[in-house]
Each structure stands twice: as structure tokens, then as C-alpha cells.
Write the C-alpha cells for this entry.
Amino acid sequence: MIFSLIVLIGCGPSRFVAPLEQGENAISASLGGPIINVPGLATIPIPMSSITYGHGWNDDLTLFGSWFTTAAVFGTMQLEVGGTYRLWEHDEKNYGFSVTPAANFAMDFFEFNSKLWPQLDANFYWWYNHRFLTQEDVVLGKRHVPNLFYAGLGSFYELSRTRAHNEPQQTWVLPMLQIGHDYNWKKWSFKTEVKIIAPHLSNDNIVVNYVGLTGDRGATGLYFGFTKRF
């Protein structure tokens, strides 16, 4: 239960779905999390925030690192490092597949307990409003930037044989389904993403009252973010 609660709250949106161009950099800030019911207040996504830096190692691989800023305020250092690799892209470069292996590490500042979770995402992405640059665009220095729709599967992996109170670990894989959209300008992007987290696990009898598409199973997350490319 403790493992499930930490990952349900702590996971963020997809960092990079389509890799950056070689040598391109990006900084992004995201906000959001699983939707919960706060009695007497509202039904809202948990406002977990994170900051991410990414670098295009080449046209097919982007490396990134993330720092979870809200977790730091509450006494936990949580970091995520990984890379997005383009497995395949259509000849016209309007859709393709990518995979994102990563590692998520958390340590509290009080007792210095720490955990490491490997993570793996796989996404199909589709550029729409896509067109090639015309000769006039090239002469005038214009750059057409299409928007991006994506959908995919993600998973967290538990490495410890035991959970809280030295009980045997029973949850080894935490699956997720994400659907998202990047609205792109020349150097900026606005991301929205919906994530269905662990739909096979009961969310009864835990301290957080989750509200979502899967009822009393798992959680539904809602995320927003801005990215600046340079």
C-alpha cells in the first residue's frame, strides 16, 4: 500500500515523447497528479510540481533529468533521469514510436530512507497540421511547428522484496496508460496529459481518496506543463 501510494502521487507526465533535435535543449515545468477528493474543499489533481532539463544527444535520442520541487518542500529529494529514444518514424516524419527508460529515486531528509524505481514508457506519437517548409519559408527564415498527439503505456518496477513493516512485496509492476497533447509554438510548448495509473489495484482503505475513471481501482492523473526549447 505504501509503495502504491508513493508512486501514484509521485509519478509525473511524459517528459519527452518525440526526441529533440541534435544539440537542442529544453527546460520544462509541470504541475499535476492523481485526482483526489479533499473533503470540504474540492476535487482536484494533487499539485505536484517538477522541473525537467532535456538535451538532444542526437536526432533520435534525448537525455533528461527531473527534480520534483513539491516533494522537496515536504522533505523528500525526488529525482528522475532517463532518455527518450525514437524506435521508428514514418518516412514523411508525421508519426512514429518512441521508448523512454528512466530511473526514479526518492530519499527523505529526516531518516535518509531511500528508494529506486526503474520506469519504462512506450508511446505512439502523431504530428498533425504537419507540412514541409516551402522555398518561401526557407528564404524568409520561417519554421513551421506542428502540434503533437500521443498515447502509450508506462510502468514502474518495484525492486524490494519487502514493503512496509517487513511484509512480503506483492506488487512488482505498476502499469499506467497515458494520453497527451503538446500544443507547439516556435520555441514553446504547452502540454496536457491524462494518465490512468494502476487500474488493477484497489484504492480502498488508504489515506488518499482518489477520484477517477476507474472507480475504486487505481487513480486518474491530470497534468499540465510548459516547455521552452533553445
Observations:
- Confidence is low (pLDDT under 50) at residues 1-5.
- The chain has one domain: 2-229.
